[in-house]
Design goal:
By secondary structure, the protein is mostly helical. It has one domain. It contains one helix and two strands. The protein has a two-stranded antiparallel ribbon with strand order 1-2. A hairpin with a 6-residue loop joins strand 1 and strand 2.
Length: 81
């Protein structure tokens, strides 16, 4: 039975090992990316909820203080436009 030379076998084994390592890492990255996508989706939902709440609060404040009112979020000061 014929056999590969030691150099041929070593070259083939190195390429196979490299391919398997890269394939494994691609799989890890894919899992991480999908997890990040899910987290991003949740964060976008939270941001949208916060924007909607802000709009509701501002609408209420404008009804109370007038639509020409501007509100300083840091100090609570109300100024007229």
């Amino acid at each position: 039975m014929e056999q590969l030379t030691q150099e041929e076998l070593q070259s083939l084994q190195e390429v196979v090992a490299q391919y398997e390592e890269v394939s494994f890492r691609v799989g890890q990255f894919t899992i991480e990316i999908e997890g990040a996508k899910d987290e991003r989706k949740k964060m976008v939902e939270i941001a949208n909820q916060a924007l909607n709440q802000r709009m509701e609060i501002l609408k209420g404040l404008e009804e109370k203080y007038g639509t020409d009112s501007r509100f300083n979020v840091a100090t609570g000061e109300i100024t007229k436009a």
